Structure to design on (668 residues):
């Protein structure tokens, strides 16, 4: 009774925890973002599925709907990295676009106008420049400013929004910060965005403001990649630009500007030209070797895969009521980065377009060695498969570690051969991380999932280096499809096995049916001779034989023999020969074996009782129980069959031979 009560109590406890988790409205898995400040990759999750709650509005009112704004890259002072102003411009554009209804001027169009009008050639915008841009783009306001390097990694960011017609400043922002605050999650730029939006009359909700200030690592990474790509392309470094645009798309697939620039650049590179600096064949080959090395380095540092983990946790197996523990599972997926493999294929197509791939010895690139072999040119070190070990920790609301676990995610590239001009996307991998023996009393309505490391690279370094994209996502539907596919495959395998078993059974039944010798022999002609030819039977006729298989592969039967022979009669002169009549009956037992469905091999052991007309020499009954054997084959022609065989027998004290051919009829 006590045991039963204890189990009921534990069941109730787990059910309450599960219910509390499911009823929580503070987190919607479908809208989850990675937590932390760039130092770890983690997400809030829960045991059991939670109902997705609608996202809170980010702003109220019209969100500045009637404002038309152009965001310019800030001017630089001091030793500022070349990509940083473009990165700040891009993240400001992203923030204003998401957290307001302000109409923004497309950056690519803005850059084209600035270039065509030769605006800000000195690097500094004048009032006349703003008026010109405003007239050409029908822009009312400009957001511009300065990024200044103070000392070390300290920077000063000054931004303002100005009315292009009056020159009146509507909003200002100034703050110092570190490079990490500019990059990472873009903390400093996010603060500037929130402040400037408020000054422009955009009323952010508390939820919207907090979301903006928290930032998004993936978005910031994408903007940084885009900025680096634009800078590299402007400097003639097409390959570096390709990889950076690729990174931007990988971290934020919705980044339309990066996608547009990547498509245009890919078209140029896939046409066969990487650099304007190539002037001859040797330089071209050496430039491609540089490309190979750069590609290898890039994909070693940024493997073209991404990881998605599902914060909707599930219970695995049954609760251990004795220890008050349960196993909790987290679904996790490894998928190829379409942008990453597209970049490889772009280079591969460009290499093929040169028409020199085989001549230069590059037919095996990028997954096979080139000729002559050159270190550092084979992408992925030539590995056909990829394995990512992911270390994960599960914490509760009190930051108590409930369990640690690891999972190996594996995928492979198949079917790439020397001379191929495309690499197919490898299939993904979907697995479950098992957190074993989690104590029921430690479970809280919400839990925290921390990606501790990937392939030994810590969460901090993963976040800082942009090693690969790691995001949260709802994998339940994908898991259901996988389970359905596995179930379908299992059913198909069962049907195939049943069919194979049925076919095998039918074949076995047919084989056993063929392994029977059920026939009667009408007539058989044979020729027989004795060892040393001292006595010779010229011709013989078997008037009949009957054979029956009671058990497959065996036969019993009886056959008769009638023949005429020439003999040397001793009651006459020694040299006189005459014909003698001889006949016999031979019971037999033997074995049969079918070959195909027409040929039946057989071998028999027999004892023949013989009679002869040479009574003076042999008597009335001669050669009782003459032992012998035969071996031959029967060829089936429908119900009829033709038989040929060899017979050996000890007869009249000597070994005799015979060959025979006959015609028969199958029955039973």
């Amino acid at each position: 009774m006590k045991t039963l009560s204890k189990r009921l109590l534990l069941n109730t406890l787990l059910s309450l925890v599960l219910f509390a988790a499911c009823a929580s409205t503070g987190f919607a898995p479908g809208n989850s973002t990675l937590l932390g400040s760039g130092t770890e990759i983690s997400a809030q999750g829960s045991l059991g599925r939670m109902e997705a709650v609608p996202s809170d509005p980010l702003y109220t009112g019209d969100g500045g709907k009637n404002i038309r704004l152009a965001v310019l890259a800030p001017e630089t002072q001091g030793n500022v990295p070349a990509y940083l102003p473009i990165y700040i411009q891009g993240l400001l554009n992203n923030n204003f676009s998401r957290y307001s209804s302000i109409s923004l001027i497309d950056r690519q169009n803005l850059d084209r106008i600035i270039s065509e009008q030769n605006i800000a050639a000195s690097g500094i915008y004048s009032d006349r420049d703003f008026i010109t841009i405003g007239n050409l783009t029908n822009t009312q306001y400009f957001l511009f400013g300065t990024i200044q390097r103070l000392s070390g990694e300290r920077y000063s960011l000054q931004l303002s929004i100005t009315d292009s017609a009056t020159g009146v400043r509507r909003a200002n922002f100034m703050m110092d910060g570190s490079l990490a605050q500019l990059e990472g999650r873009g903390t400093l730029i996010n603060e500037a965005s929130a402040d400037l939006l408020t000054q422009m009359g955009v009323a952010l909700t508390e939820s919207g403001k907090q979301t903006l200030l928290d930032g998004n690592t993936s978005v910031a990474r994408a903007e940084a990649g885009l900025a680096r790509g634009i800078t590299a392309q402007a400097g003639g470094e097409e390959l570096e630009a390709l990889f950076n645009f690729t990174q931007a798309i990988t971290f934020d697939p919705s980044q339309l500007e990066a996608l547009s620039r990547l498509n245009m650049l890919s078209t140029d590179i896939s046409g066969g030209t990487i650099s304007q600096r190539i002037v001859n064949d040797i330089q071209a080959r050496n430039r491609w070797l540089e490309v190979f090395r750069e590609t290898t380095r890039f994909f070693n540092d940024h493997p073209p895969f991404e990881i998605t983990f599902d914060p909707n946790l599930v219970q695995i197996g049954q609760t251990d009521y004795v220890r008050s523990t349960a196993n909790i599972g987290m679904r996790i997926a490894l998928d190829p980065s379409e942008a990453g493999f597209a970049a490889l294929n772009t280079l591969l197509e460009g290499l093929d377009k040169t028409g020199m791939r085989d001549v230069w010895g590059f037919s095996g690139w990028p997954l096979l060695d080139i000729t002559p072999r050159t270190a550092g040119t084979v992408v992925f070190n030539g590995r056909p498969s990829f394995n990512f070990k992911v270390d994960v920790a599960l914490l509760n609301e009190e930051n108590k570690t409930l369990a640690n676990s690891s999972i190996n995610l594996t995928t492979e590239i198949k079917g790439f051969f020397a001379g191929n001009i495309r690499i197919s996307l490898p299939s993904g991998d979907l697995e479950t991380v098992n957190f074993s023996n989690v104590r029921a009393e430690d479970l809280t309505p919400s839990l925290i999932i921390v990606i501790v490391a990937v392939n030994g690279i810590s969460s901090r370094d993963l976040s800082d280096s942009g090693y690969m994209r790691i995001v949260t996502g709802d994998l339940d539907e994908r898991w259901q499809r996988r389970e359905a596919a596995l179930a379908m495959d299992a059913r198909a395998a069962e049907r195939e096995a049943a069919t194979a078993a049925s076919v095998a059974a039918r074949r076995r039944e047919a084989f056993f049916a063929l392994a029977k010798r059920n026939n009667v022999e009408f007539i058989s002609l044979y020729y027989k001779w004795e060892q040393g030819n001292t006595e010779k039977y010229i011709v013989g006729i078997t008037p009949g034989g009957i054979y029956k298989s009671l058990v497959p592969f065996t036969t019993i039967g009886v056959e008769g023999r009638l023949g005429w022979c020439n003999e040397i009669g001793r009651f006459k002169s020694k040299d006189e020969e005459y014909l003698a009549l001889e006949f016999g009956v031979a019971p037999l037992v033997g074995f049969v074996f079918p070959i195909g469905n027409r040929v039946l091999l057989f071998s028999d052991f027999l004892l023949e009782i013989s009679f002869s007309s040479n009574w003076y020499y042999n008597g009335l009954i001669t050669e009782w129980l003459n032992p012998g054997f035969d071996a031959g084959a029967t060829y089936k022609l429908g119900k009829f069959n033709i038989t040929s065989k060899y017979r050996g027998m000890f007869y009249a004290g000597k070994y005799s031979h015979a060959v025979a051919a006959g015609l028969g009829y199958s029955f039973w």
Remarks:
- Residues 1-38, 568-574, 615-622 have pLDDT under 50 and may be disordered.
- The longest helix spans residues 476-514.
- Residues 598 and 636 are 5 Å apart (CA to CA).
